[in-house]
Amino acid sequence: MTHHHNFVVADTPYNRLCSNKSILTVNGQFPGPTVYVTRGDTIVINVINRARENITIHWHGVKQPRYPWSDGPEYITQCPIRPGTRFNQKIVLSDEIGTLWWHAHSDWSRATVHGALIVYPKKKNDYPFPIPHAEIPIILGEWWRSDIRDVLSEFLGNGGDPNVSDAFLINGQPGDFYPCSRQDTFKLTVDYGKRYLLRMINAVMNNIMFVKIANHNITVVGSDGAYTKPLTSDYIAISPGQTIDFLFEANRQPSHYYMAARVYAVAGTFDNTTTSAIIEYRGNYTPPSSPPLPSFPDFNDTFASANFTGRFRSLANKNNPIEGHLERLLASVNNITFQQPRIAILEAYYNRIRGVYGDDFPSDPPLNYNYTADVIPRDLWRPENGTEVRVLEYNSNVELVFQGTNTVAGIDHPMHLHGHSFYVVGWGFGNFDQNRDPINYNLVDPPLQNTIAVPRNGWTAIRFRANNPGVWLMHCHLERHISWGMEMVFITKNGKSPDAKLLPPPPDFPRC
Q1: How far apart are CA 282 and CA 24, in angstroms?
Q2: pLDDT tens digits, residue range 371-390?
Q3: 492 and 347 both lie in a single domain
């Protein structure tokens, strides 16, 4: 089935934190409209740019088989949609299921240009978990009193960290602990004894978030457009770009309870405030004057963050088989600071335009040293500017090892790969040992994800099959790190059969 939607991008006045400002929105909504589809559907989005700036839209977690022309990252797969122009994006779904999302992929526009993409099974309620009474999208975001364009230009101009946001948000609202916000706090009304599926998206720009519902446990049942084995916890750690589907049962004394979120952060400045929503039980009772607030892990509790994600497991059953990925490619960003070209790499590749990119991205780091030492000498800080890609043979099996470093300061990196989902086969702290660590890989039921947080001063190993011809970006989903060039590009070559070749571009493809 094909769904058609108009996305009108325009500046819209909004009021938060006792003040007004104009923000970039889709169809005047913040967060933007939720798109509902069935597994295997196609979406056609007519993106109409009525704003004053360029825009692109990325469908995060959608593999877009053989059709990277609508993937969205600016100057990677397309030139931006200029003010006063439009672009019909064809979004091709394949095996994705559950919660994904869409967001701008140009400058820092995704701060306000984002929304949920819900992919239902072909048969109604055909879930590998108990059928919920209701399903609710929950989008974590943030708000700057300043214009986000000013935040970006100041940050790029001074070379330091960007100014932190003034509030975090749940479904567009800051919550009870911020000024001028209590009356608009997001509220979820529930019935005692019923089960609810919350579809959570972290649209925050630069922070992993801890999330809890006071006095309730939750059960994770999916992440990044794939089902998982049930995982019960009293908190969530969710990376920017990641989605997590979880069940919670309204099985406590009917009352009001806070669902709240705050930062997990280990380096640099960060917004240490707490955003909140209220879970309201239906019934006759006297609500508390102040609902209970959950207690969180410490701001810098690396183990709490990494251990939560490390517990994810695929279903790994006959309906959700694990594919074998046996060959090896060791890579990280490897000391190359990515430089955006002025012609989209996909267009240059397809039309064989020379001089736009190089194909010499290294398979191994050019310098070997103790990446997680307490002190790393400055003479080892040697990034080089470049626009290098890594070319992959069609259907080749790829392993990447993301190695975090303590250069400047150790921090978690939520790495996102376009055009593919990948299996997370291993992770650990310290330096990756290629002789010892692969022995302990999980090759039985590794989680299938498209975004994974590499733990602070640690490593994560992923595997995927290069079975999607085209140009595909890989980057850290902390927006400030993208701005600093923490990204690279894979080009997957065509296969031999007609259904293994890159499809041609659409007629209205944006031009630079």
Answers
A1: 36
A2: 655 566 565 556 667 788 89
A3: yes
